[in-house]
Design goal:
The complex is a heterodimer of chains A (175) and B (489). Chain A is mainly alpha-helical and 175 residues long. Chain A has helices at residues 3-25, 28-44, 46-51, 55-77, 96-106, 110-121, 126-133, 137-155. Chain A contains 8 helices and no strands. Residues 78-91 and 158-175 of chain A have low confidence and may be disordered. Chain B has 489 residues and is of the alpha+beta class. Helices cover 22% and strands 27% of the residues of chain B. In chain B, a hairpin with a 2-residue loop joins strand 2 and strand 3. Chain B is globular. The model of chain B is unreliable at 1-5, 36-92 and 285-297 (pLDDT under 50). Classes of the chains: A mainly alpha (175), B alpha+beta (489). Chains A and B meet through helix 1, helix 2, helix 3, helix 4 and helix 5 of A and helix 2, helix 6 and strand 13 of B.
């Protein structure tokens, strides 16, 4: 992959990948940094990228790994995350609909959330999702099914923001 | 109730692009240069593998056979103190190198004042031959080095069931001493006489040293088991810049790993005064060698790292494998990555050990399973442990790119619930030591974990082919968990 090809790849996929990682981790600022770091590593190891069947998946998996690693470090050490890639940016206003979706996704178990994002946002078929997460297809289907059911509850008009499925508040009923 | 897919169909958040593609590429180039520096800082090492097309390997890359790069040497008589006639060193020797052994060097420290049998004083003796020091059976130390020997001294003590011999050699430059140390490692590692077994032990002196334990069989071989081993010899070699110290301690015991470990410990304690003096004399300005024991000094950290290593009883019990045994520490047996994997990580200390096992029905046959593990100790005053973990994790993710005969099975992933951070990679490479006209392949899982200020690395491999042996993932997880428990205790 030469410079021009990489630049084109970056321009074409950065925003899409950031949106996907944002949906996975629920923090747009963090998602931007992790995706940028993943592209830095992609250029540093571009021969590996050339051999990858799906370069975009390669970057997305790397970004997700970086995000999880940084989250762990913050959680365990209670230090600020390493802002080595770029100074903190102020993200633009995000559409309210997106906020509701990302907030709901954050309430799912991580495995379900990731499967949902890869299948419904990244538009990957189940087999590709299974390859990317390293799980059997049946397991992925189960996660998708459970995740969709949980999201349906979380996103229904009858559920207040922040209320977890199965614990209705104040007599509110939901499907 | 709205369909859960509705929000997805319009999911397209507005995302700015803070860094340009050019900025990304610049950072990537810096990262590549840093990683290349880590890989070559310790010298050039190339893994030699012959590729065999195998159905189990992913991808269709063509592969090249790599040959190991041998360091340049010249056959110079190491006992001749005259200037070398061989190739000149690539760099001028530092002006502060000490090329003569002081008269009061405490080479005999810790030894009885007189020999038990002869009554002769146990004094330092100058001159002589390096071959007077036996390495492999009776064959003496006879290294091939690129630079000349400038001084030599020895001391020996002999009593029933207690023989101790020490040799101090000083070379024209650091390369000479390093080559001599490598010769000791190679000679002992390749020594395989009848009735004796040479086993490399973990050295507490760090990478510029080697320790071997020699067991002797009462029956001429070890077919009756280790418990009938009689006698134990510990051979140490330790380098400080252009000086190389060798010690040989013939004693009893050694029929089991605990006995060997005790023998190694005794030998290290006896060598300690001479080792300390080597730092004082040969290390040069600003390097005062091991500091006082304050819990953070290198020897203390080294001992702690060594104590945290996996032991035989921690290794997996697999039906297809015979008994595990400690094996010589071969730096090429990391699944993937440079031989000097830890160079540049700024560890206070590191310790490593390697184990191997033959097939359950092939006792004494070639190893079909091997495990290598290392513990790196870092200072609690900085974040070097985290940086080292990041660098080693990067190695797992990208090392196969630089090694055409090593195939990454997958990008690997995180391991939940182990230490503060843990991740792994899965690799395959040919197993020509098993056979060259078959499908034998090493299936290697390599993992790195951080627990506090320590980093643990584990590489676990079994031979299969063309199918992968079952259960490797849970085995790696169990072994890494145990290694992290030890490191965190």
């Amino acid at each position: 992959m030469n410079e021009a090809e990489f630049d084109e790849f970056y321009a074409a996929s950065y925003r899409r990948l950031t949106g996907q990682v944002y949906a996975m981790i629920g923090n747009l600022d963090e998602a931007q940094e992790c995706v940028q770091e993943a592209f830095v590593r992609a250029w540093a190891h571009r021969r590996k990228l050339d051999r990858a069947d799906h370069p975009e998946a390669w970057v997305r998996v790397t970004a997700h790994r970086i995000a999880v690693s940084r989250w762990r470090r913050v959680t365990l050490s209670r230090r600020s995350p390493d802002r080595a890639v770029s100074p903190p940016t102020s993200a633009p206003e995000v559409d309210e609909t997106h906020v509701a979706l990302v907030t709901a996704l954050r309430q799912l178990p991580e495995e379900q959330r990731r499967a949902i994002v890869l299948h419904h946002i990244a538009d990957l078929p189940v087999r590709a999702v299974a390859d990317e997460v390293g799980a059997p297809e049946g397991t992925v289907k189960a996660r998708l099914s459970r995740g969709r059911a949980a999201l349906a509850t979380l996103l229904s008009d009858d559920v207040l923001p922040g209320v977890r499925p199965g614990r209705p508040e104040g007599g509110t009923s939901h499907a | 109730m709205p369909e859960p897919t509705d929000p997805f169909s319009h999911y397209d958040p507005e995302v700015p692009m803070p860094l340009s593609a050019a900025d990304i590429r610049r950072r990537g180039d810096r990262l590549r240069r840093r990683n290349a520096g880590l890989a070559i800082a310790g010298g050039v090492a190339v893994i030699a593998l012959v590729a065999t097309p195998l159905a189990v390997l992913t991808g269709g890359d063509d592969t090249d056979a790599l040959q190991p790069v041998a360091p340049p040497t010249s056959a110079v008589d190491p006992t001749d103190p005259r200037p070398t006639s061989g190739p000149a060193p690539s760099e001028p020797a530092p002006a502060d190198l000490v090329t003569a052994i002081p008269d009061d060097f405490p080479l005999a420290a810790g030894l009885p004042e007189t020999n038990s049998e002869s009554g002769e004083p146990t004094d330092l003796v100058r001159g002589g031959q390096t071959t007077d020091f036996p390495l492999c059976q009776d064959a003496g130390f006879d290294p091939v080095t690129p630079s000349a020997l400038t001084d030599l001294a020895s001391v020996s003590y002999l009593a029933p069931e207690d023989g101790r011999q020490r040799l101090l050699t000083v070379w024209e430059d650091v390369d000479g001493a390093a080559a001599a140390l490598a010769d000791v490692r190679d000679t002992l590692g390749g020594c395989d006489p009848s009735g004796a077994r040479y086993v490399e032990e973990t050295s507490s002196y760090g990478p510029e040293s080697v320790v071997f334990a020699v067991q002797y069989s009462a029956f001429g071989d070890f077919s009756q088991g280790d418990e009938l081993a009689v006698g134990l010899t510990i051979i140490e070699a330790f380098q400080v810049r252009n000086a190389l110290y060798l010690s040989r301690y013939d004693n009893e015991g050694g029929s089991d790993p605990e006995g060997r470990a005790a023998g190694v410990q005794r030998s290290a304690e006896q060598s300690d005064p001479a080792v300390a003096a080597m730092y004082d004399v040969f290390s040069g300005e600003g390097d005062t060698g091991p500091s006082e024991d304050d819990g953070t000094s290198t020897p203390q950290a080294q001992a702690q790292a060594q104590a945290a290593l996996l032991a035989l009883e921690d290794l997996p019990d697999r039906e297809r494998l015979g008994a595990w045994a400690q094996a010589p520490d071969d730096s090429t047996t990391w699944a993937c990555g440079p031989a000097d994997l830890f160079t540049g990580l700024d560890a206070q200390a590191s310790s490593a050990v390697r184990y191997a096992a033959s097939g359950a029905d092939d006792d004494g046959g070639p190893a079909i399973a091997r495990l290598r593990t290392a513990v790196l100790q870092f200072s609690p005053e900085d974040d070097n442990a985290e940086r080292a973990y990041d660098a080693l994790q990067d190695n797992l993710a990208f090392c196969a790119e630089d090694e055409p005969d090593v195939e990454a099975l997958a990008m690997g992933g995180f391991l939940e619930g182990i230490g503060d951070d843990a991740s792994f990679g899965a690799f395959t490479y040919a197993a020509p030591e098993i056979c060259t006209d078959c499908d034998a392949v090493w299936f290697d899982r390599m993992a790195v974990a951080r627990i506090g200020d320590r980093v643990v690395v584990v590489s676990y491999a079994e031979v299969g082919g063309p199918l992968q042996p079952t259960g490797l993932d849970p085995v790696l997880r169990d072994v890494l968990s145990r290694a992290v428990d030890l490191a965190g205790s």
